[in-house]
Amino acid sequence: MKRKDRAKYLFVGPGILWVLVFTVFPLLYSLRLSFFRARLGMAQQFIGLENFGRAFTDYRFWSVLQVTVFFVVCDVTLTVLLGLGLALLFHRPLRGQRFFRSVFTMPIFTAPIALGYLGLTIFHEEVGAVNTVLRALGMVHLPAWFSNVWLARLAITLVDIWQWTPFCFLVLLAGLQSLPDEIYEAALLDTSSGWGTFRYITLPLLSPVLFTVTILRVVETFKILEIPFSLTSGGPGMATQTYSFYVYLTGLRNFNAGYASALAYLLLILMMAISLFFFRRLRRQYE
Amino acid sequence: MKKLRLIAILVAVGSLIAAQMLSAQMISGFPAANEQEAATALAAFNKADKGRPDPAWRGQKFTIGVYSAGQRGAISGPLYFWRNKFEELTGASYDIVEIPFAELREKIFTDLQTGAGRYDVIINCSNYYGDYIANDWILPIDKYFNDSRMPKWDRASIAAAVANLMKWGDRWYGTNNDHDAQVLYYRKDIIESPKWQAAFKKEKGHDMPVKMDTWEDVLEICDFFNGKDWNGDGKPDHGITLHLKVGGQGFFHFMALSAPYVVIPNPGDPVTKVTKYNNVYWFDPLTMDPLINSPGHVKALETLMKLSKTGSPAMWGWSLGEAWADFLSGKAVMTFSWGDVGSLAEDPTQSVIMGKLGARGIPGTKTPYDLQSKKFLNLSKPNMVGNQVGCSWHPVLSKYAKNPDLCYYFMAWQATPPINHWNVYMGWTGVDPGTTSDWFAPYGSATIQEYVDGGYIADDAKAFIGAFQDNFFNYKIFQNYLRIPGTPEMQEVWDVHLSEAITGQVSPKAALDRTYADWVRIVADYGKARMLKLYQESIGYKP
User: Fold this and answer.
1) pTM for the structure as a whole
2) Does the residue B65 lie in any domain?
3) Ramachandran sector of residue B240 (left: φ over 0; alpha: ψ -120 to 50; beta: rest)
């Protein structure tokens, strides 16, 4: 082997080793664990697909899946719509555009767990900012943000939207800015309707970016953990306990590594199915 | 050169100033808040038995794992406070590793499971014992009791229920420290006020049951006060305050409240004997079938739900701090919780109720459920059941401890009556009372002056200590403590289901039926036969 060849393997080696040790090995080991009863302090016992089967008879599995799907549908819809709206708003000459663009993107850099704790101070039922304002406006029966099932879910949705709308906004704005001006110039000859231009030109051309943003948000929201963890601890009851939260509790709090691994792989399968569906639709559109 | 010289001078001056500041914080070798604190600590230090430290320990170090509360925080604070004196005594020292409460079990169990041995001494929650014993993770300490090197501490002075938490069977594993229980705290000035008693009689048609012997009495009083402006601030105030948020230790409220509805004494002698039907709360001691959805438990949950409606609606989402603040800031007329409330009540930065504190042992009920006859009883006197709800944080020795003798010396020295009692009456330490050194005569040797020196108002101290003394020494029967493998997981699912019931998502029966099903599964996962044996050992049941 020439010295040059040896040198390049030396440079690439640590990176490969890192990926093998911290990504590939845990992935394979957790797959193995999912076929075992692996509880703290007990010898591991091979049980085949029992962990996977157990999930389907576990009422908590269905509950956390339902809660997660709720967040996926609401959060993704609202962040993409708001992000698109903001992108359209900023895709024109505006005063202070750069300043507002920077301010709007700030939440994306905040750690979700910190946002959750910030949410505690905003939505606190007695002294939180929201209820203080509502009280000042004369409201007598103030929202019980953490004691009511739907209000707790709304609080999490609002925090999550606040964090992720900037991401959608940035990506969609970049998408809009990449669209060719000539098409709009040609469209102006046929119509002056903004809605018509948006519906027949902007939306179809933007659809690959829209699809990408949506699928990224769907995948990310399916993994939502930090905000419900810090804001509501999954309560009241299991009203805001998400899938990832349940996997965390099962694996890292209750030390049931086998079942937690099975749950994690079920989520992976679900995510792959959803991604496959999305990319097939996208491909069909272009064909 | 000139520049270098200037930098050197600045560094030297800065170091001197820093050293001066540091030394100014040490009083008589303690990082004390004031002279009085240091003086009382020094007196305790001088009085405490010191054994004969082994010269071979000089220069050695060990590590203590404890939940994170800071240098003047509950449970971790005393470790910092006494460290210098420990170094003086032994020439050895220790590192303190603070672990956030939410990660405590993960970090400790991972350390023990992997054999990493990062922590030599663990200030642990008593419910970890099941996993410790099942996996042989901690060392028994009986062999040190007659070791002349080791300080002597008084095992007989500890409340029997708490002492049992430091043992497994006949072997000791832990040393004396904290003694957790929940007691009922109330605003003495409001409950005993003739004005409010007259108003109660007018509204309810009978005298206010000020003794509050039963939960039914508590419910009636809280219902009366809820929504009325009894503190004169012009706004409606609360009856009771509770911490019912998921993960906010709300299940401990239920544990303390429900005990008298389920635990009934043995009809024979002794009354404390554990049988299939008596002095049991968690599982059937013969079959390991969970008892958690018995009609007694269901009725208790219904009572807790009614109680939760006699305070702020927000309390369904409150953690400890918020619930305690509601009482300490004078917005709630009562609460039931740990000794922290009693000591925080005397902190002027957090409390407006100094001098107004009433306290009593946890109430009972006249209608407990009899597991044998499967009926609710109708008693002429309330069924009163003592509790040890909480963690009763105390040190244990990891089997991976590099110098177990030195570690035990520290544990025993902290457990000596003078030092432990000092930790108790200095409220900021988070160490709750539980030995005869903490009670007043004729039950113990403590004096009011000690508590006053610790910052208590004399009458508040009498009420607070009296309530704990009642709970630990005057109640004839006790709720067992659950310490089998998987206990934290059982408590986690229980906590979630209780919240579901309290917030109206499911009925109380359905919530406890779900808990039952989850506990059956957890027991099966760990092995029913193994769990049954450990459960019988942990509650002192002899088949």
Assistant:
1) 0.89
2) yes
3) beta
